[in-house]
Amino acid sequence: MSLLTIILNLLLPPVAVFMQHGVGTTLLISILLTLLGWLPGVIHAFLVNS
């Protein structure tokens, strides 16, 4: 995992997921979790991008 990915995982989780996986269900889940709360979005982004 690169430094850029780690920073994006923390600041903008959906953008980090989009950069790794593109548009799909993973991105939609990331957006929904980030809207529900920042921390669930960050956790999901780290799990998906690891």
TrEMBL record:
<feature type="transmembrane region" description="Helical">
    <location>
        <begin position="27"/>
        <end position="48"/>
    </location>
</feature>
<dbReference type="InterPro" id="IPR000612">
    <property type="entry name" value="PMP3"/>
</dbReference>
<protein>
    <recommendedName>
        <fullName>Stress induced hydrophobic peptide</fullName>
    </recommendedName>
</protein>
<keyword id="KW-0472">Membrane</keyword>
<dbReference type="Pfam" id="PF01679">
    <property type="entry name" value="Pmp3"/>
</dbReference>
<comment type="similarity">
    <text>Belongs to the UPF0057 (PMP3) family.</text>
</comment>
<keyword id="KW-1133">Transmembrane helix</keyword>
<dbReference type="GO" id="GO:0016020">
    <property type="term" value="C:membrane"/>
</dbReference>
<keyword id="KW-0812">Transmembrane</keyword>
